[in-house]
Amino acid sequence: MQLTQVLSFTHPVKGFWRLLPLSCLLLTACVTTSQNTTKGTGSASDAQWKAHQQELNQLRDYQTRGSFVYNGGETKTYAKFFWQQYTPEKYRLLLTNPLGSRELELTVEPDLARLTTKDGQTHMSDVPSELIYQLTGMEIPLDDLTAWLVGSPGRATDFTLDENHLLKSVTFEQNGEKWVLDYISYDTKTSPMLPNYLKLRQGERLIKLKMDSWTLKK
C-alpha cells in the first residue's frame, strides 16, 4: 500500500474530532420505523433469504445518513455520517460534526481512495481502510462494510439469520482479526428491508452505525 500526501501534513490527526461532546450524538429516536431482529432461526438455504439477497444485489445507487460512533480505546469518535454508494466499488463517506461542518470526506473508486480532512488537506492511497487508519487511528473494514451496511454478509460465510430471514449476525476474520457484526434492527419502510442499527466489534473496538434514512435507486 502506498500513501500519497497531496498537501503538506506533519503528523497523523488521530482523534482530531474526539472533542465533540457525546451529548451531541443523536442515537435515539429517528424517523424510521424499526423492526428488531429476533432469535436466529432462519437458514441460508431458505428461499426468502435467497430472494432478499437478489434484491440487495440489484441495489446500485443508494445513500444513507445517520450517526457514527467509534470507540477504540485511545481513539474515540462521535459524528454524523453520510454514505453514498454509486457502484459496488465506488462510494463516498462524509463525516460531519453536529453543526454540519466537514470533519472527514473519503471518496473511493477502483484502485484509488482520496481522503480530505476538515482543513482541506488531501491524501490518496490504494487501500481505503489503511488510509483511514493512518490519518485517524480508526480501524474500519471498509471493503466489507459496503456489503454489511445493506444487510449482506459479503465475503463472510459465517453468519446467522433471524426468523424473518434477515441477517442477524456476521463473524469474519481478516488479517488474524475476528470481527463480529450484530444487526439490532431494520427499517420496515425500505424495500428491500435495510438495516437501521448495527454494531461491529473487534477486540476492544466498537463501531456503531444508526441509519436515520435511506434513499434507493434500483
Protein model, in words:
The protein is mainly beta. Helix content is 12%, strand content 45%. It has helices at 47-57, 128-136, 142-148, and strands spanning 3-5, 34-36, 61-71, 76-87, 90-96, 102-109, 112-117, 122-125, 158-161, 167-174, 177-187, 194-202, 205-217. β9 (158-161) and β10 (167-174) form a beta hairpin.
Strand content: over 45%
Q: Largest beta sheet, briefly?
A: 13 strands, antiparallel
Structural class, from helix and strand content? mainly beta
In sequence order, what are the helices and strands, one letter per element? EEHEEEEEEHHEEEEE
- Distance between the terminal alpha carbons, to the nearest Å? 34 Å
| Helix count, DSSP H or I runs of 4 or more residues | 3
Helix coverage percent of residues?
10-25%
Residue-averaged pLDDT, rounded?
A: 84
Give the assembly state of these chains. Answer: single chain
Low-pLDDT parts are 1-31
Structural shape: globular
Number of strand segments: 13
Rounded radius of gyration (Å): 17 Å
Fold blueprint:
Layout: E1 3-5, E2 34-36, H1 47-57, E3 61-71, E4 76-87, E5 90-96, E6 102-109, E7 112-117, E8 122-125, H2 128-136, H3 142-148, E9 158-161, E10 167-174, E11 177-187, E12 194-202, E13 205-217
Antiparallel strand pairs: 1-8, 2-11, 3-4, 3-13, 4-5, 5-6, 6-7, 7-8, 9-10, 10-11, 11-12, 12-13
